[in-house]
Amino acid sequence: MTTITIAFGDGIGHEVMDVTLTVMREAGAKLEIETIQVGERVYTMGSETGVLPSSWESLARTRVLLKGPVGRPEEKKNITETICEKFDIDIAARITEQCDEEPEISAVGYVSEQFALFEPLQDAMPELAGKNKAHPGAMLLAAAMMLEHIGQKTVADRVREALQNALKSKKKKVRTQKFAEAMIANLYTH
Predict the structure, then answer these.
(1) Which CATH number does 2-186 carry?
(2) What is the pLDDT along the chain (190 residues), one digit of tens a residue?
(3) Any bridge partners for residue 109, and if so which?
(4) Measured at the alpha carbon of residue 33, what is the angle toward residues 103 and 127, in degrees to the nearest 5?
(5) pTM for this structure?
């Protein structure tokens, strides 16, 4: 069992993270989860960084963050950059992964010896929040990268394969929940 920190983020963050947590659990991930709050709500509380001061404790303890998409005011500092600076991660040395089926579905990881952050390369899209129209693929890919990093490679491979199979089989516009169901159905087909 590995303890990780998650941040749902803003906009579509809650629904894509919910789906991702469900898929990871169904794929056999062994995780204990701590949740922190980052993003627009934290900025509106007066934070320059978008990270609650109490969140640093969880991040230092778990040393792994799976972060959903976030929004931020233009004049405020980027949350990813802030976290990378805090944990001495070279932001330019990021690891990017994309789906073969749909290259626009991609995720990124920032990894050092002391900390790792994984996130989808996806906007928060507040206009889609709560409408079951957000594509969870990039969040799922970020989760697969994180699972591999924490030593759960078999689960990570299972998630990646189910994602590829779900992308191949989709015929209509993506619905967040239906896509998750398709992924779960594909988890153990091979």
Answers:
(1) 3.40.718.10
(2) 999 999 999 998 999 999 999 999 999 999 999 999 999 889 989 888 899 999 999 999 999 999 999 987 888 889 999 999 999 999 988 999 998 888 889 999 999 989 999 999 988 888 878 888 888 999 999 999 999 999 999 999 999 999 988 888 765 556 778 888 877 887 765 4
(3) 95, 118
(4) 50
(5) 0.91
